[in-house]
Design a protein that fits this description.
- The structure is a single chain.
- The protein has helices at 27-40, 55-64, 72-88, 94-99, 110-117, 123-129, 131-136, 149-159, 169-185, 201-212; strands spanning 16-20, 45-49, 103-107, 141-146, 192-196.
- It is α/β, with parallel strands linked by helices.
- Helix 1 (27-40) packs across helix 10 and helix 5 (110-117) packs across helix 9.
- Bound molecules: adenosine-5'-diphosphate and thymidine-5'-diphosphate.
- Adenosine-5'-diphosphate is lined by residues 21, 23-29, 155, 159, 200-201, 204.
Length: 217
């Protein structure tokens, strides 16, 4: 049985942890492991991801799997819209949960847009297109799991039957560089930690926990 969370009433606003990294870096695994640790300690938490499963998110999935064709600028705009709905949706939006004191963990947030879409367009444009989201809610910490594109590709090949549009090695090389560029560009505004993702799942989870637990002490 899931433990009852006790921490909510002590917090004004919930913490918000955004996991970032190239495809196959181990984000979803670490989101799951962190959510588990928080729950075990009685801390209310909600794990979520982008693209979401909203109508906008499902349109994005159909584009990524090649079922619908459109321009890259349209895709970037859809991700920005999906993110705003992810934040503001009255039924299950992140903002309501944060305001009620729940800790939220998301598998990807706006740094994913900065890194992926600036392969095709200027990073400044992408940052501007996501200005509403960054004004509404910045992550307490952006947790970047860093693996080389080679390691990421191996993991993807081992575990998936098909590769989606974005999972090409040359693209991942550029995306990783773009992440670093975005972290430098926004170092004054954003809290970013970079974790070596080439370690075992448990070692990575321990490193992440050392950082995260400070926000609950
Ligand atoms: P992402 O969400 O970043 O795409 P996943 O968490 O789905 O990555 O991990 C991709 C694959 O690699 C999965 O099959 C997962 O089991 C495996 N994996 C995750 N973390 C590690 C790790 N630290 N070492 C080796 N394999 C891992
Ligand atoms: P998905 O298979 O859901 O996630 P992952 O590979 O992280 O397990 O694919 C999400 C893809 O969407 C991934 O290739 C990154 C891309 N993406 C963007 O291009 N822009 C964005 O803003 C976000 C959130 C994701």
């Amino acid at each position: 049985m899931e433990k009852v969370c006790k921490e909510r009433e002590h917090l004004k606003r919930g913490n918000f942890f955004a996991f970032e990294g190239i495809d196959g870096s181990g984000k979803s695994t670490q989101v799951r492991m962190l959510a588990e640790r928080l729950k075990q300690r009685g801390i209310c938490c909600y794990a979520t991801m982008e693209p979401t499963d909203s109508p906008i998110g499902s349109l994005i999935h159909q584009i990524m799997t090649g079922r619908i064709k459109t321009d890259n600028r349209v895709i970037a705009g859809l991700f920005a819209a999906d993110r705003l709905d992810h934040l503001l949706n009255e039924v299950d939006g992140i903002l309501n949960r944060i305001n009620e004191g729940t800790a939220v963990i998301t598998d990807r947030y706006y740094f994913s847009s900065y890194a992926y879409h600036s392969v095709d367009m200027s990073m400044e444009w992408v940052i501007k297109a996501n200005e509403q989201s960054s004004a509404i809610l910045r992550p307490t910490v952006n947790i970047f799991i860093d693996v080389t594109p080679e390691v990421a590709m191996e993991r993807i090949a081992r575990n998936r039957f098909h590769q989606e549009l974005f999972e090409k090695k040359s693209r991942l090389v550029k995306v990783r560089e773009n992440y670093m560029k975005a972290f430098r560009l926004l170092e004054k505004e954003e809290k970013v930690v970079i974790i070596d993702g080439n370690q075992s799942q448990e070692q990575i989870a321990d490193e992440i926990w050392k950082i995260v637990k400070e926000y609950f002490e």
